């Protein structure tokens, strides 16, 4: 049995057609009156150190503990205008 996770198994044709529509927008020439602006969102965990690291001494590596405290989440938004480069 095979499971697909990128392209839905039952909607392959529709998915590909919509993807082609999006790619056609990227292929348009640059027009300063109608700029192409892309947006991406990345959810991020906000982490805090549980224990303070041990200071380095000359010739030794700094020691840090692997444990952390989850201090919430946030979303980072990135906006680009790829055709303006």
Question: Could you give the order of strands across the largest sheet?
Answer: 1-2
- Biggest beta sheet summary: 2 strands, antiparallel
Low-confidence stretches: none
Residues in helices, as a percent range: 10-25%
The residue-averaged pLDDT reads 85
Number of strands: 2
Strand content: 25-35%
**What is the succession of H and E elements?**
HEE
- Structural class based on helices, strands and sheet pairing: alpha+beta
The quaternary structure here is single chain
Number of helices: 1
Q: Any idea what the radius of gyration is? A: 23 Å
Name the overall outline. Answer: elongated
Distance between the termini: 45 Å
Describe the protein's topology.
Layout (H helix, E strand, L loop, with lengths): L11 H16 L10 E12 L18 E13 L5
Q: Care to describe what's here?
A:
The chain has 85 residues and is α+β, with helices and mostly antiparallel strands. The protein has a domain at 12-52 and 67-84. The protein is 19% helix and 29% strand. It has one helix at residues 12-27, and strands spanning 38-49, 68-80. The protein has a two-stranded antiparallel ribbon. The longest helix is centred in the first third of the chain and has 16 residues, at 12-27. The chain is elongated.
């Amino acid at each position: 049995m095979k499971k697909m996770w990128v392209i839905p198994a039952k909607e392959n044709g529709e998915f590909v057609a919509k993807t082609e529509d999006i790619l056609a927008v990227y292929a348009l020439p640059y027009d300063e009156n109608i700029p192409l602006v892309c947006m991406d969102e990345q959810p991020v965990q906000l982490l805090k150190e549980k224990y303070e690291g041990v200071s380095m001494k000359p010739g030794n590596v700094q020691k840090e503990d692997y444990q952390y405290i989850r201090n919430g989440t946030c979303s980072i938004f990135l906006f680009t205008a790829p055709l303006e480069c």
